[in-house]
Amino acid sequence: xxxxxxxxxxxxxxxxxxxxxxxxxxxxxxxxxxxxxxxxxxxxxxxxxxxxxxxxxxxxxxxxxxxxxxxxxxxxxxxxxxxxxxxxxxxxxxxxxxxxxxxxxxxxxxxxxxxxxxxxxxxxxxxxxxxxxxxxxxxxxxxxxxxxxxxxxxxxxxxxxxxxxxxxxxxxxxxxxxxxxxxxxxxxxxxxxxxxxxxxxxxxxxxxxxxxxxxxxxxxxxxxxxxxxxxxxxxxxxxxxxxxxxxxxxxxxxxxxxxx
Length: 260
What we know:
This is SDR family NAD(P)-dependent oxidoreductase. Keywords: Oxidoreductase. By secondary structure, the chain is an alpha/beta fold. It has a single domain, classed as 3-Layer(aba) Sandwich (Rossmann fold). The protein has ten helices and seven strands. The model has no long low-confidence stretch (mean pLDDT 92).
């Protein structure tokens, strides 16, 4: 690749990930982008049109093999910016979910994410510099009735991000956690939540969410919640009983709630 800084963006075929990749290209980065679908090649073509040198990797980051494949695609190149954005949702009641789908959510959102962060983070520590942007969620503040596993994984990521930030602060590495609310992406369709109130309701723009996260990362902020109402929600969540939050979430995420 050229002498430009290198950004690695996961979940970059659509949604927030693609928007982060567009910002990186616009701001003079070359890119390695990854997703578990062939559309990652379409994203690469667009980004090359913006002047970036782009390596596209189709890999399932829910598997160790997928993480290794992505990491090996870097070769000897050093990652200046890691946007660990890949994530997967899953709606409906936990007892009704297929276990393989539950496991894939956990392996994508948690296991594969932190495996990749460790690999890249170790290289950043050796270089004495680097920026990591992790896509968490305001969902991590809420007991997610009818979205229990997803919200649980985001609670892990939100907490993990803050802890990692503290550990690496003396190594020239910044860690920022982006916490969006409901965003206009394919998330709810893929999670089977189109008939829920939250799935059918208005959502934030993915480009605006990505911009919020990128700016916070560049400033070295520890975490950023996108949107005023999401900030209100996370603030109230800290002082609201879990049972109340779970019931509120049920009204938004229970199948069929869009008709109520």
